[in-house]
Hints:
Elements lengths: L3 H15 L17 H13 L1 H4 L7 H33 L4 E5 L6 H4 L6 E6 L1 H13 L7 E6 L6 H8 L8 E4 L9 H11 L8 E7 L5 H12 L10 H10 L2 E7 L1 H15 L11 E8 L1
Parallel strand pairs: 1-2, 1-4, 2-3, 4-5
Antiparallel strand pairs: 5-7, 6-7
Helix pairs in contact: 1-4, 2-4
Amino acid sequence: MDNMTALVSCFARAYHYKNNSTWVFRDSMAGSLLSKEEYYAVSLNMSKGIEYFAPGFEGTDNEALRFIVDSQLAPSVLARSAFCERALRNEIELGCGQYVIFASGYDTFALRSEIEDMHVYELDLPDMVSDKKRRVHESELEEKCEVSYVPCDLSESKWADDLLKAGFDPAAKSFGSLLGISYYLKKEDFTRLLERIAPLWSEGSALCFDYPVIEEGTDSAKNRELAAAAGEEMKAKYSCEEMEAILSESGFLIYERLDKEAAGNQLFRKYNEACPEDKMNAPMGVEYCLAVKK
Length: 294
């Protein structure tokens, strides 16, 4: 599979669910999208790379894997997913019936959702969409709400037409997730993407995303290095003021924003209280944002 970032993110969600009984984000379906061979291969590669993540670490391979997942792989993935789906649940209560997942990868919302009248649109590159559909079919999983897969390239303007052709209604209340996208786009490209989304979003519709801030921690730096090694270089960082201005120019207002401290208190506290020996920290250098169309 070419998209190593999507694969590792899916692994992080699967590992967290499998090895805990209290969760930052509960993804009961992520493991079903991975073959046993893939799960083992990622586990082995990570545990064998412990010297990179923690020089001088002493412990078993399983302890090394747990350390890497809890300190490096999982926190950002789990936090953004938890933040996003918390906001989505609130928007559903306010009448949202359309959920657009940009760069959907191996997202499992449609496999877990109990909202039958929700229409989910999953947008990603054609090869990724084809691979996701194959995994769902081979695992004999059942999507619990209506799903439209939209193969497209978000760097091109045509994706908007493809979304409309798939049945998306611009007049209806919508929610969109752009999780993990801003890191891999230049600032002008991320701004252009927001500008293309804006005409499709009705007043009061929301967007949820995470983005890298200028202050960066050790874990964020290592994740950036890993992404670059996988051919997916992270290309931008933002100040809070800069992101607010970019959103405003596209017609969005920030409704909620979590920094490291707020994310720790809101998203990780319950898990850390239940698992004091395997605590996780919200990553430094990442903020989570919910924006609403003016």
